[in-house]
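Morning - manganese (II) ion inputs below, output right after.
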Amino acid sequence: LTTPSPGKPRVDTLIDGERLISRLRTLARIGARADGGVNRQALTPEDAAARKLVVGWAREAGLAAETDAIGNLYLRHTPAGADNAEPIVSGSHLDSQPAGGWLDGAYGVIAALEAVQSLKENGTALSRPVEAVAWTNEEGSRFIPGVMGSSFYLDRLSIGEIADKQDPDGVRFGEALGELLASTPDLPVREQPRPIAGLVEAHIEQGPILEAERLTIGVVEGVQGMRWMEITVRGRTDHAGTTPLRQRRDAMLAATAMVQALADALHDPDDIIRFTVGRFIARPGAPNTVADEVTFTIDLRHPDEDVLERSTEKIRRTVAEKAGACDADIELQESLKPVRFDQRIVETVASAASDLGLPARRMVSGAGHDAAVLAQRYPCGMVFVPCHKGISHHPSEDADEADLIAGAAVLAETLRRLASD
Ligand code: GLV
Ligand code: MN
Ligand code: MN
């Protein structure tokens, strides 16, 4: 046995690993699917229940809980004498995909709560407040686009401009938000976003690299760029039994031809471009009527903004070419440039992992995150932990408890270092 050197941090003294895992498992019951996954989409009653649960834990821990006009949650520990200092912030999201797992987002919120609570309980000397955050609607699976809470924080969007957006069942965003906010009537509502001194988000990797290399920690240096588009193809309804094919303006045939031609046009021999059509809706949706309107989404990602721009041009050309007798238009719904995280924060994450004796590597995130939005204004970084087979946005998403605990300890030590400058 080796005796730990007195100056070195240790996972088990930085955080309470058992508490972290038990809270994650409790949270996973809210919106639990029969197949073991989680369906807790943004602004649903399940999302509201998850927020209440987390606020309860934060209050028990003596943290000050607040919300804001879009439902972001702020759980703050202010050390003596630090009231006026800008905080070090950490968090992620409580909403999930419809066929999601228990860790995407939830891990980053509960790890942040664990880190902040432990810093408070351990009486750690800090010169800044530390704050755990849950950002509203990161996923964008129910209300498009995603990363709404963090975009609102930066004034990249206002509630007015998204209030009338509808989910696939026709529920307005404004109405769903009203219900979410009404579920926590006792929470003070923050009027103005506050400046942030630094932000670190913990997350499962959602890809296969750390597991394949048997590493515990990913030191995230940046996030690839992403564009979301919605394509609408308009034709004409006709009788399926009587209308000769050459007389039809069939939106379904045009749209399916577009999807296949887009996949071909965006084929990347190096397999770096990510092109996904995840939603495809035909109207009126009757088997014996030609579809007159098809809408489908495109999620396009790459680490290089020039490639995204060239790919967008290819999309415009291909959609126009394949429209045939139909009309087609493209709406750009979200555009996030590739992000490079703050060098000081990246180095702080790397040295915290190294001082904890955890094997780590630097990497770029393939998934989008609130930290990538907030990095447009504030110094940001991320900590990744491995997940099983790199699987995410799937009910079987999972990770080793020891890795989740190690990642939360790296987070706590990173927050400590950043908040004691
Ligand atoms: C977040 O879930 C993303 O789409 O990358
Ligand atoms: Mn996520
Ligand atoms: Mn996700």
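Note: DSSP finds 13 helices and 15 strands in the chain.

O.
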